[in-house]
């Protein structure tokens, strides 16, 4: 055989075998895919082992859901992040006399400096340096003035005022209202100011004067030519005693007794005792009304009593509500009476479903005070005994008919006020006036102070003026006129 021919033949068979083994559907990785028959769902996707030339690398890939990364996510509840509570800084409280700083209920509160006391919205030097009663000061000396005419006292900032009814003339047929103003040292500011000038009588009650921190307001009774046809007004005065306006009559053509006024966060609350007199018959009721800051009627008047009323209501304002006590009958025949307590908001809406009966005795002339955690109610029993009842903040009885003290002579009137940590009580005993302090439990704090001995007097009106008390009373100076009544006042520093 020819060797060249044999080698050529073998080379031809080798080339044919290689040509037969090529897969026409398997593209050459070096050549582009030119097979137009590839029409499957992944026709436009790269092969699994090839990178996608239209997508960035994984480390450069943005969030595909359109949301920022977790560490960049804003609050999704639209609420601000919790704020840090305020803290006292050096410049938090810079008002003179009020540079102490405290955080109360997450708010900066500026307090009076050490050694100063809060009076209204002012920080002042304390009035008292020791317990005791000051010398009496004569305010008015006119004949024929009714010794039992009430006096009313109220404070306004660093001043306070006393209002009373006076005839200013012997055998006069009318009385008008007057005001005397005093500074913190007890010095009278200017002369007595005539508040009214009417042809008939003008009267008030021992709690007819109040202050809202800006002005004085006075609830006054104006008599007419017809007996038992009286009217009740509210009049406002500035700190100098100048009238700021008088309301329309709040009550007309009634017999009216002892208006009681307190300032509220809505204006004023006014209570009083009234009767429509027909044929000489009286049917007394206790009323309550809410007034605006300028004296317009906001709500009421409402009746406090179901049956006839007895002793006039006494009312105080406690933070956000009024507390009232009164004496009223428990039956239509007016044979049995009791002391009642009830609370109201600034619009005369009752906060207690019904009046709460206080104590079990038949006492009268109730007075209510707030001690900070209890309501203390003082009343007179059988003209010789003073009783204390206390209610907790829910109106539940704590102390019932606790004896405070006894008198050596019948007394039908008393005045009580809270000093800040004790009950101050004044009354008339024999021919002297008595002033004494008691703990909220009823225990006496000191010996009674007797003054005005040997004179016929009215029971002093008491008023708490912040860090001291003020008293005002009438004295009968029988010489030369047996009806020559004089008005006195004094200050008292409690324990």
3D structure, described in words:
This protein is mainly β. Helix content is 4%, strand content 44%. The protein contains 1 helix and 35 strands. Strands 11, 12, 13, 14, 15, 16, 17, 18 and 19 form a 9-stranded antiparallel β-sheet that branches. Strands 5, 6, 32, 33, 34 and 35 form a 6-stranded antiparallel β-sheet that branches. Strands 7-8-9-10 form a 4-stranded antiparallel β-sheet, with no helix packed on it. The N and C termini lie far apart (148 Å).
Number of separate domains = 1
Helix content estimate: under 10%
- Secondary-structure arrangement, i.e. CATH architecture: 7 Propeller
Main sheet attributes: strand count, strand direction, barrel closure: 9 strands, antiparallel
What is the helix tally? 1
Please give the alpha-carbon distance between the first and last residues.
Answer: 148 Å
The helix/strand class is: mainly beta
CATH class: Mainly Beta
Brief summary:
Residues 20-96 are annotated as: Disordered. The strands form eight sheets. Strands 11, 12, 13, 14, 15, 16, 17, 18 and 19 form a nine-stranded antiparallel sheet that branches. Strands 5, 6, 32, 33, 34 and 35 form a six-stranded antiparallel sheet that branches.
What descriptors fit this protein?
1 helix; disordered N terminus; 6-stranded antiparallel beta sheet; 9-stranded antiparallel beta sheet; mainly beta; globular; 495 residues; 35 strands; Methylamine Dehydrogenase, Chain H
């Amino acid at each position: 055989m020819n060797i060249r021919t044999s080698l050529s033949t073998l080379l031809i068979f080798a080339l044919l075998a290689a040509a037969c083994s090529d897969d026409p559907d398997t593209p050459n990785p070096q050549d582009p895919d030119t097979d137009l028959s590839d029409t499957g769902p992944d026709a436009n996707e790269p092969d699994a082992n090839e990178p996608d030339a239209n997508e960035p690398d994984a480390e450069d890939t943005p969030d595909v859901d359109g949301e920022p990364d977790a560490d960049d996510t804003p609050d999704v509840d639209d609420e601000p992040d919790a704020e840090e509570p305020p803290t006292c800084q050096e410049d938090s409280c810079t008002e003179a006399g009020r540079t102490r700083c405290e955080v109360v209920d997450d708010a900066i509160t500026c307090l009076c400096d050490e050694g100063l006391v809060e009076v209204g919205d002012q920080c002042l030097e304390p009035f008292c340096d020791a317990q005791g009663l000051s010398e009496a000061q004569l305010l008015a000396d006119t004949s024929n003035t009714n010794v039992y005419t009430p006096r009313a006292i109220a404070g306004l900032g660093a001043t306070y005022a006393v209002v009373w009814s006076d005839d200013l003339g012997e055998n006069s047929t009318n009385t008008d209202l007057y005001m005397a103003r005093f500074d913190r040292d007890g010095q009278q500011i200017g002369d007595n100011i005539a508040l009214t000038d009417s042809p008939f009588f003008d009267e008030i009650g021992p709690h007819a004067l109040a202050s809202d921190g800006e002005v004085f307001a006075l609830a006054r009774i104006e008599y007419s030519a017809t007996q038992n046809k009286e009217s009740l007004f509210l009049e406002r005065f500035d700190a100098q005693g100048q009238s700021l306006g008088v309301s329309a009559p709040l009550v007309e053509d009634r017999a009216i007794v002892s208006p009681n006024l307190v300032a509220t966060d809505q204006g004023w609350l006014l209570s009083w005792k009234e009767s429509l007199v027909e044929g000489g018959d009286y049917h007394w009721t206790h009323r309550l009304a809410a007034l605006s800051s300028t004296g317009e009627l906001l709500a009421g008047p409402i009746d406090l009593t179901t049956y006839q009323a007895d002793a006039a209501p006494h009312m105080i304002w406690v933070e956000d509500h009024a507390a009232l006590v009164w004496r009223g009958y428990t039956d239509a025949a007016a044979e049995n009476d009791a002391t009642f307590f009830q609370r109201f908001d600034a619009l005369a809406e009752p906060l207690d479903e019904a009046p709460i009966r206080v104590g079990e005795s038949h006492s009268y002339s109730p007075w209510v005070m707030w001690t900070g955690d209890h309501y203390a109610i003082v009343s007179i029993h059988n003209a010789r005994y003073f009783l204390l009842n206390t209610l907790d903040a829910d109106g539940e009885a704590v102390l019932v008919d606790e004896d405070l003290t006894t008198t050596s002579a019948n007394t039908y009137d008393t005045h009580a006020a809270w000093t800040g940590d004790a009950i101050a009580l004044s009354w008339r005993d024999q021919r002297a006036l008595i002033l004494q302090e008691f703990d909220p439990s009823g225990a006496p704090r000191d010996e009674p102070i007797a003054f005005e001995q040997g004179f016929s007097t009215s029971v002093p009106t008491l008023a708490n003026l912040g860090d001291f008390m003020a008293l005002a009373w009438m004295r009968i100076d029988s010489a030369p006129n047996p009806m020559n009544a004089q008005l006195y006042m004094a200050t008292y520093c409690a324990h």
